[in-house]
Amino acid sequence: MTRMRLFAFDFQGPAHLSAGLWRHQDDQGGRYTSLRYWTDYAQLLERGRFDGIFFADNVGYHDVYQGSVAAALADGAQVPANDPFLVVSAMASVTTHLGFGLTASTSYEHPYALARRFSTLDHLTEGRVGWNLVTSYADSAARNLGNGHQVPHDERYDVAAEHLEVCYKLWEGSWQDDAVVRDGHRYADPARVHDIGHRGRYFTVPGLALCEASPQRTPVLFQAGGSSKGQALAAAHAEAIFTNAVSIPALAGQVRKVRGLAAEAGRDPGSVKVLQMLSVVCAPTDEVAHARYESYRRLVAYAGAMARYSGWTGLDMSQFDPDVPFAHVRTNAGQTMVDLFSRMDPDKQWTPRDIAEFIGIGGTGPTLVGSPSTVADELIHWMTETGIDGFNLGHAVKYRDIADFVELVVPELQRRGVVWSEYEGPTLREKLYGPGTVRLRGDHPGSRFTRTSVSAW
Amino acid sequence: MTRMRLFAFDFQGPAHLSAGLWRHQDDQGGRYTSLRYWTDYAQLLERGRFDGIFFADNVGYHDVYQGSVAAALADGAQVPANDPFLVVSAMASVTTHLGFGLTASTSYEHPYALARRFSTLDHLTEGRVGWNLVTSYADSAARNLGNGHQVPHDERYDVAAEHLEVCYKLWEGSWQDDAVVRDGHRYADPARVHDIGHRGRYFTVPGLALCEASPQRTPVLFQAGGSSKGQALAAAHAEAIFTNAVSIPALAGQVRKVRGLAAEAGRDPGSVKVLQMLSVVCAPTDEVAHARYESYRRLVAYAGAMARYSGWTGLDMSQFDPDVPFAHVRTNAGQTMVDLFSRMDPDKQWTPRDIAEFIGIGGTGPTLVGSPSTVADELIHWMTETGIDGFNLGHAVKYRDIADFVELVVPELQRRGVVWSEYEGPTLREKLYGPGTVRLRGDHPGSRFTRTSVSAW
Fold first, then answer.
1. Could A35 and B120 be called an inter-chain contact, meaning their C-beta atoms sit closer than 8 Å?
2. How large is the average pLDDT for residues B108-128?
3. Omega into B372 within 30° of 0, i.e. cis?
4. Is pLDDT at A334 greater than 50 in this prediction?
5. Residues A26-82: pLDDT tens digits?
6. Distance in angstroms (rounded) separating the CA atoms of residues A336 and A338
7. Which of A21, A24, A73, A119 is most worth mutating to test chain B (most B CB atoms within 10 A of its CB)?
8. Cβ–Cβ of B117/A205 closer than 8 Å?
9. pLDDT surpasses 90 at A296
10. Is residue B257 pLDDT above 80, yes or no?
11. C-alpha distances in angstroms, A308 versus A19, A74, A244, B87, B224?
12. CB distance B187–A70 less than 8 Å?
């Protein structure tokens, strides 16, 4: 088994995936506007030797349920949502190894500006940033940021592929490693800084990058696409993918599929790391953990869960009776989440309420409940049975669940030798591929744009 | 005389306005990618009781001189340029009062995304951010971020005015102050969060803001426009303007003009604070200060100065002999900077080299050289003769010049009672208008969009 990678999954708002849990007495979500909250959290994660923290993001909001944003607002369901890029430098300033994964959309960010943001953060964090590339699904984002309607799903992926190409050219090909000379006459040698000359279908970027080469150049690339177009993009470009499978067999199948696609795309299948979304409720004993989980379950808010689920699927769940099983419905999103639940337990006829109770704690990933030993057993079982590389840990109760994990589960995992006790390699890419691999691997499509010290393309 | 406001003027790159000075042995510009550099700097400024730091920005680069970016790259002349927004949270986390002014362009940032960035930072800094609104002048920015050519100058200001209106609606009118209730059932009361319904000529933003109301709501608005369209925008919207006059009479005239325009726009003329750009080279004695200034002067790089000047004016200065006076030339930028220099000293025929030597230290603002007492005398003289409110302090040598100012000049100004010894009011707006004025004043055009607790527009 490979070393278990651990990321925390979070959101710059009062609540992320769990519905109604912000009302728990231990929940710290109400402090999301406080810098101190985030710097404390960063230090907690570094004490637990986490590889990084991932910030989801949503430039739209959930307004499908009941045709209104009301249920989402009432549950703080991913709205309000602050910009996650802006908290990173504070969290980086109190840590030395923790990585930062940031979600950004290729549909609403211009590559020239976005490439600069990532380069800036990669400089300031000394190589600790990653990009979770999304194409955005919410109509509300298109209405407020675009021209009133979304680009069709498949074309969004064509835009994403060209967006990535522009970014690679800026990150890998504009500033040579030896461009900054500081030789007493010149800060940079102009002959070593190159215009990228990009003229494509969606973007025209003829000039040079505004930022000199950062430690990692290209940030570590993450992807979570579930559609066939999304899987193809992930197989070609992602260095790690997020999964949210509901069962071990389903996850094992996803892992085989994405690594097969990566091989077809000419990459080493082992280059694609897989991180499964999963939540943990841990206490010193199984009994106390289950009691705690029950206290969480009682707080799950049906409308808050359905506001999210309707937003993700594009299907207004208010049209269904909460307690009547409903047939498999193909939604207007790429993924059929109703099918997903039914696959998990083919003999069960899922009702909307079943779904709400399931996703209300930690979203669509599973939740493990138990003592440190029980949780460690299960985490290891998930890894060995599926070939994944680690976990993207959600939470029910903000801060508290992750603090319990750091205090209780991490020491148990360290005793078993499946997580590290000390960091090796400060950059985020080294956390995936080992010390020394700071830049894109040679099998990655972005690497063909790399100019180290000579003109190469 | 009003309290002297002090801001540091800086840039997220190895060099800002001064040309060639990055080569000085004391210069710290080479550390611009280091978080520690910026957090140390923030603490230095807070020890000096500065009101804030201002980050200029440039999403293009200077490629007018010799038709190439080469001279700019060789001098690090505002290129490379990291994104200033991303360092703020780290600097804010080690300070409690220092304000942060950020330059952002209404031509290349969508108001929905930009409003969110400012709201996020206003939350994280607890009300310490300001926006230096620019419309961007560089063709290189248009080529790399836009559709190949710039929007005409006057229309850029029409775009800016509508952009601001969208931002006001998002900041002031979407989330009521009492929208977040956390009453055990609801995080926010949906009836207190409003769609802004903006449908204009350049932007369509029908929905609600992604962020709840931040301490200041609208960040403090700064402007520096020199053209008539720019002055009109500043008079209507700016809470403070930046000037870079080269002489006291010229500055006094500018102050009268902008306050007159503000009064015509229905505002209290005193609502428009004026901050003059100016650099200081200070040492314990006049003699040592002048020797230090001479050591700076010898390092000024002609091509680096001309790369900047040509970029600002749009006039390729390489076509002129450096040592032959040249006639007044109207440039393709809004401001005629050649005229500006000639007005400063009507009897002098300026050569390109004269201009390079002048702007090579601290840009187009004047540079004061002397002992703490001499510098304090001159700063007070500039204020009393012109009616300005303070200074935006540039530098020749990064960190060192401002550190000298904090160590030598600030105590002298404190002894004279013209700057404060302790902060009053933590937000940036309170630093302009006094404790308690956290939100836009009633005479500001943005205030008509404010919803505190009832629907008002």
1. no
2. 97
3. no
4. no
5. 999 999 999 999 999 999 999 999 999 999 998 899 999 999 999 999 999 999 999
6. 5
7. A73
8. no
9. yes
10. yes
11. 9, 12, 15, 32, 44
12. no
* Backbone dihedral angles phi then psi of residue B52, each to the nearest 5 degrees: 180, 180
- Rounded to 10°, the helix B337-344/B248-264 angle is 120
Q: Where are the domains of chain B?
A: 5-57+78-285+368-449
Tokens of B378: 């001159």
Backbone φ and ψ for A61, nearest 5 degrees, come out as -150, 165
Q: Compute the half-sphere exposure of residue B49: CA atoms within 13 Å on the CB side of its CA.
A: 18
- A54 - beta bridge partners? A9, A101
In chain A, the residue whose alpha carbon lies closest to the alpha carbon of B111 is A145
B193: nearest CA partner in chain A = A73
In this structure, are residues A271 and A254 in contact, taking their beta carbons and an 8 Å threshold?
Answer: no
pLDDT of residue B333: 45
Query: Which tokens in the block code for residue B316?
Result: 């390729």
Q: Which of B316, B308, B323 is nearest to B66 (CA)?
A: B316
Residue B110 to residue A113, Cβ atoms within 8 A:
no
The answer to whether A148 contacts B110, with C-beta atoms less than 8 Å apart, is no
Among chain A residues, the shortest Cα distance to B114 is held by A83
CA B418 to CA B439: how far, in whole Å? 25
Amino acid code (one letter) for A26:
D
Question: ∠B41-B393-B345 over CA atoms, to 5°?
Answer: 155
> How big is the A-B interface in CB pairs under 8 Å?
203
H/E run at residue B64: none
Residue located via tokens 């996650």: A84
Chain-chain contact of B87 with A124 (C-beta, under 8 angstroms): yes
Say yes or no for a CB contact (<8 Å) between A210 and B59.
yes
pLDDT number for residue B334: 43
| Calpha distance A98→A105 (Å, rounded) | 23
- Mark yes or no for CB contact A80/B39 under 8 Å: no
What does the pLDDT read at residue B146? Answer: 75
Q: What is the pLDDT of residues A193-221, one digit of tens each?
A: 999 999 999 999 999 999 999 999 999 99
**Is residue A344 very low, low, confident or very high in pLDDT (cuts 50, 70, 90)?**
low
Q: DSSP secondary structure string, A302-354? A: HHHHHHHHHHHHS--GGGS-TTS-------SSSS-HHHHHHHH-TT----HHH
Torsion, CA B113, CA B114, CA B119, CA B121, rounded to 10 = 110
CA B1/CA A113 separation, integer angstroms: 43
- The CATH number assigned to the domain with range B5-57+78-285+368-449 reads 3.20.20.30
A-interface mutation test, from B144, B212, B398, most A Cβ less than 10 A away: B144
Gap from B34 CA to chain A (nearest CA, Å): 6
CB contact under 8 A, B145 and A22: no
Contacting residues of A for B113, CB less than 8 Å apart:
59, 108-109, 145
From chain A, the residues in CB contact with B74 under 8 A are 185-190
Name every chain A residue with its beta carbon within 8 A of the beta carbon of B69: 190, 193, 208
Contact residues on chain A for B30, CB-CB shorter than 8 A: 182
B232, B261 Cβ separation under 8 angstroms: yes
- Encoded tokens for B295: 């050591």
pLDDT of residue B119: 98
User: Which residues lie below 8 Å from residue B16, measured CB to CB, with a gap of 6+?
Assistant: B9, B10, B56, B78, B363, B394, B395, B398
For residues B131-163, one letter each, b for 16 or more C-beta atoms within 10 angstroms of the residue's C-beta and e for the rest, the string is bbbbbbbbbbbbbbbbeeebbeeeebbbbbbbb
- CA neighbours within 13 Å on the CB side: how many for A389? 20
Does the beta-carbon distance from A87 to B83 stay under 8 Å?
A: no
Q: Which two tokens stand for residue A94?
A: 């109190």
Contact assignment for A79 to B15 by CB distance below 8 Å: no
